[in-house]
Structures are given as structure tokens and as C-alpha cells.
Amino acid sequence: MPKMVKFRVILLVSVSALWITQNSYADGSDSKSLVSLELLKHAGLKMLWENELPIKKNENLDRLLLFGNYLYVVSDRNFMLSLNQKNGSIIFGKTIESAGLPITGLKLYDNELLYVSSNSKLLQINAQTGNVLKTTDVGFSVCCPVARNSAYFYLAGTDKRLHAIHAKNKVQAFEVAAENESMITSVIADENFALFATNAGNIICIAPDIPRRLWQFDAPEAISGTVIRNGMSLFFACKDTNVYRVDMISLPERTRLIWKYQTAAVLDDAPIVTQGLVYQHVKGKGLTAINKNTGSALWQVPGGVNLLTEAGNKAYVITNTRTLVVMDNAKAKKLFTVNFADVSKHVSNTTDDKIYIADVYGRIACLQPVE
Q1: pLDDT tens readout for residues 232-252
Q2: What angle do CA 231, 234, 240 make, to 5 degrees?
């Protein structure tokens, strides 16, 4: 099976490279474009590259993942492709799990892709080559993506405990749980602490190397999605319909609620945090932009589902009707809309101003605002 996968990728890398060369956008042709080049020009966007990926007829593109300088595509049969962000060419392709089996959160740490398989295996994959570096049987099922620092892996088990495992030998160092025995919904870690959130609304910060609680913040209801750390601030969505900003400060308080913004529905997704704004998807309502410092709402795009990128004062939002909406953040008004009818997959990019979009059949494109 590995040889078959390798053959498929090597053959189609050559085809893909040829396709890119033959379909340069210098001539303005858009016969095969995912989005009309004329429409992009109207909205001040240019297409940097477009590619057709080796997705078989019996599989669909499932998701795009963006980790810093790494762009990955995963099919619904767990076939993963790594792409060069500059030109869209394929770097490697690999089946990372048997088709149909769930993967609990792909994460990037240093130069390793991390995830836990459905049979409780912790996998470490070289992010540049796709080679499996190590597989470890952790002995329990996990319920959210793994977190990591230089010394430990932190895995939230379905046993409602956070397990700290030595990075060197994979031996468990300790485990800890919330006092109310609530299920863990997300974990983050650095060299100074590990932090986990629960479906009872707790955010608990512990020492990185021992089960000692440093502080705890209690929200009224479950924390939805991942807690987002931005400097010394934590941003998160809560089932009580509010988006929160909580800052980690010095003794004696340890934490301080800076603001909370009430939305019009129960929240299911984590916020997206950029330099100046917080973007929150509200199911059935749209995407709301919130001032990062004050917690006041700036605008809402009805039907908006995700922020694709920011460029200067402009925000690029994809809607549930497959339309791109360009918003002016400074003036809080809509500037343009673009028909994205063929776009069904996208990823939020808060690193730079590139936009990555695709369809389920494997067409993928990279766009960029033109100043």
C-alpha cells in the first residue's frame, strides 16, 4: 500500500508541476480557475497560483490546514498532501490513517505534526517529509488535540484527566483533573504552564512539570472550541453566548476578566484573534468583528462563517452562500462581494494576507490582495 501511495504522488507531482507551468496567469486566462479572474480583479485580488490535486474519484478533499509556513490538504480518506505555499506544488503525499477512522486534531510543534489515532496511538510525523518519526501507544482515548512543550506531551483523555507524558521516553509523569470531574475540551501549553478548559466552564492553569494548580477561572457554562492565547491574553467562546477576554496577570489575582461580549446565540466555535480584532462565528447569525481592546462590536456579516485573512484595514470573510465579502474594518462597512460558488473548502490565515481556497474535487488556489 505505501508503494502505491508513493507512486500516485510522484507521478502526479510531475503532472501538477507541468499544469502550473502551462497555466500561468500572466495571460489572464481563467478557463480553469476556481474563481473568475475578472471577479478577483474587481475586488482587488490576484491569483498567485492554482493546482489540481491527486484526489481520486471515490474521495473528496475534506479540509485545509495551515501551520505557519506549512500548508496541508487532507482528504476524506485520510490522504494528506503537503504543498509549497509559494507555488502550490506538492512536497509529499501520505495516507496518515486508514480511511474512515477519525483523527483527533492535527497539530504542529517545532518540525513535527502530532495527532492521536482512533486506536490510541500518538504519532509524530516529520512536517517536511511526511515520514513517521515515532508511534506510541498511550493506552487511552483522547478527546481533543494534543499540546506539547519541550519536556512533555499533554493529552486530555476521555477519562476526564489531563495526562502529562515525558517527551523523551513517553512515560507518564502525572495526571490531573478538574475538581468537578468535567470533560476537557481543549489544552494549550508552553514552557511555563499547561492550561486546560472543560465543559463545565473551568479554565485551569497548572505548573508544567507537577500537578500543582496555579490558578482557575470559572465561566458560567462550557468552553466551546479551543482557548486562544495571544500574548498574556486568553480569548474563548462560552456556551453562555459570550466571547471572553481574560488576561493572565501577576499576583495576587493571577487572572482578570477584561471584557465579555454577548452574542445572539449559543457559541460552538473558538474565536479567531488577530492583531487588533477578534472574529466570532455565531451559528445562524454570521461573523462578528469585535474590538480586541474594548470588547465592542464593529460589524457583522450575516451568514459569515470564517475569516479568510486580513490585509491592512480589510477583512476577507467567506459566507455560507459561498460568497466572499470584503469588509473595511476602519469604517465598519462592506466594500465588495465576490462569487465563490465553486469554493467549498477554506482555511483561516492570521499569519499573512494570503487566501487559500479549494473545492471537494481537489482544485486549490492561493489569492492575495493587491495594494
Answers
A1: 999 999 999 999 999 999 877
A2: 165
Q: What are phi and psi of 16, to 5 degrees?
A: -60, -45
Write down how long the chain is: 371
pLDDT for position 225: 93
Residue 192: Cβ-neighbour burial (10 angstroms; 0-12, 13-18, 19+): exposed
Residue spans of alpha helices (H) in the chain? 2-22, 37-42
The CA-CA-CA angle for residues 288, 294, 296, to 5°, reads: 35
Q: What sign results for the dihedral spanned by CA atoms 122, 129, 32, 304? A: positive
**Residue 86, CB half-sphere, CA atoms under 13 Å: how many?**
1
Angle (CA) 273 122 193, round 5°: 45
What is the spatial distance between Cα 314 and Cα 333, in angstroms, rounded to a whole number? Answer: 10
Q: Is the four-CA dihedral 197, 200, 206, 208 of positive or negative sign? A: negative
CB 245 within 8 A of CB 237: no
Question: Cα dihedral sign for 188, 316, 275, 371?
Answer: positive
Q: How far apart are CA 227 and CA 162, in angstroms?
A: 16
Rg (CA), the chain: 21
Q: What is the pLDDT of residues 293-314, one digit of tens each?
A: 999 999 999 999 999 999 999 9
> What's the rounded Cα separation, in Å, for the pair 364 and 217?
42
Residue 3 has pLDDT above 50, yes or no: no
HSE, CB side, 13 Å, CA atoms: give it for residue 285.
18
Q: Quickly list DSSP for 292-308.
A: TTT--EEEEEETEEEEE
Quote the CA–CA distance of 184 and 105 in Å, as a whole number: 14
CA 367 to chain centre: 18
Which three cell numbers, joined as nine digits, stand for 202? 473551568
Taking the whole predicted model, whether its pTM rises above 0.85 is answered as yes
Q: Hey, is 343 helix, strand or coil?
A: coil
| Contacts of residue 7, Cβ cutoff 8 Å, sequence gap at least 6 | none
Q: Under 8 Å CB-to-CB from 128, ≥6 apart: which residues?
A: 82, 91, 111
Q: Copy the grid coordinates of residue 279.
A: 472574529
Q: Quick one: pLDDT band at residue 11, thresholds 50, 70, 90?
A: very low
How, if at all, do strands 297-302 and 286-291 pair?
antiparallel
Burial of 340 (0-12, 13-18, 19+ CB in 10 A): buried
